[in-house]
Amino acid sequence: MPASRTAKTKTETLLGRLRDARVSSDKLFEIVREGFLYERPIPERHRIIFYLGHLEAFDWNLLANHIGAVRPPQAEFDRLFAFGIDPVGGGLPTDKPSDWPRLNEVRGYAMAVRGGLDAGLARATNRVEDADVQDLLHVAVEHRLMHLETLAYMFHQLPLEQKIRKARMHELTSRPVLPRMMRVPEGVCTLGLSRANANEFGWDNEYESQTVHVAPFEIDEYMVTNSQFRQFLEAGGYQSSELWSDANWEWKAKNDIRHPVFWKQTGKRWMYRAMFDEVPLPGNWPAYVSHAEASAYARWAGKALPTEAQWHRAAYGTPSSRESDYPWGEEAPSASLGNFDFREWDAMPVNASANHRSGFNVAGLLGNGWEWTATVFAPFPGFAAMPFYLGYSADFFDGKHYVMKGGSARTAACMLRRSFRNWFQPRYQYAYAGFRCVSNNC
């Protein structure tokens, strides 16, 4: 196929992916009953109404000038909805619902933005030699898909009566989980992407590719389950200051943190807040907790959280020293291989995907919950910020965020690539994030 036709086909594919992502985001907002779109279910985040405008403002601010898009001027909304918040040390937002535009104004803005962008993008498809358009479209698509996940975190915290219920697709139970650790021998792992591979998109923090030597270690076969974490809680883990760093203990005490945010105690019975139900605590589901809580559990267990390199070695390494594209091999992600790509609203048992094992027999490494690592989010050697999104990663190279790997039930398949890096603050409880432990005494 001629290069020009290949480039045009790639652009058209990306435009189709953007349209699909828009449909998905529209459907996601529909689960919130209209009277509650001005709620703030997570104190650290904007009200829901912000995100209804943000997804379109981001695309406009990213793409409009580059493709010559035209629409009626709404510069005040372009600014209002431009950026979310990550309040490390900055206090909680205090705005009121009345501080935000009316719902019909936000929806009108979103429609105007889409119309203007679509007209400009239709013209841009004729400029097939412009690889920048493709990079920008990749960013627009993945940014929206990321928000499909982080919005689910927010909607999860809404009271059940404020949501329109959807059916659960799987059963809560499975065969018992028998905790054990798998040995990973000494070897190397490859972190990141190489800029020499022009055919694969990556965010700036995924570059530059590097090889890291990893000493032998043992790692949990499965993510730590709710049952295991309950043992830590009932052993007094939340009352033992020696298990927590000073900053984490101060946070826990100040906010009266006594258990994971997804758990609810009714008398002596533990319940679990699923997206659309409250159910008896599913013991075999992964424990969704903050990095602070995961670190305290690991100390209690006499273990540690894995580094980013250890996690990579366990996930993609093989006894033959070859690294695979996915833990299970080279096959593209599919429903039979794990809980990801928006097929479920909640977690599943950690041992639910029998075919999802790495070369070192570690199970369930992609989907079903991001996995905290001990690695502070920082640039790889050779890092260069994206010129059209300078702060995407660099704003978070502050020593106050930790790398997460893997993915959750609400993570898009495209972000299950080996090089993708996620990150969050250590005391943020609301992400679909769990963990597994390592032992370095082997």
Q: How would you portray this structure in words?
A:
It is built from ten helices and twelve strands. It has two domains: 3-162, Four Helix Bundle (Hemerythrin (Met), subunit A); 181-226 and 260-439, paralog of FGE (formylglycine-generating enzyme) (Alpha-Beta Complex), CATH 3.90.1580. The termini are far apart. The relative contact order is 0.14. The strands form four sheets. A four-stranded mixed β-sheet has the order 10-9-8-11. The chain has a three-stranded antiparallel β-sheet with strand order 1-4-12. A three-stranded antiparallel β-sheet has the order 5-6-7, with no helix packed on it. The chain has helices at residues 3-29, 48-67, 75-80, 103-124, 131-156, 226-234, 246-254, 291-300, 308-316, 391-394; strands at residues 181-184, 187-191, 210-214, 217-220, 263-266, 269-273, 278-280, 370-376, 402-405, 422-424, 433-434, 438-439. The chain is an alpha+beta fold.
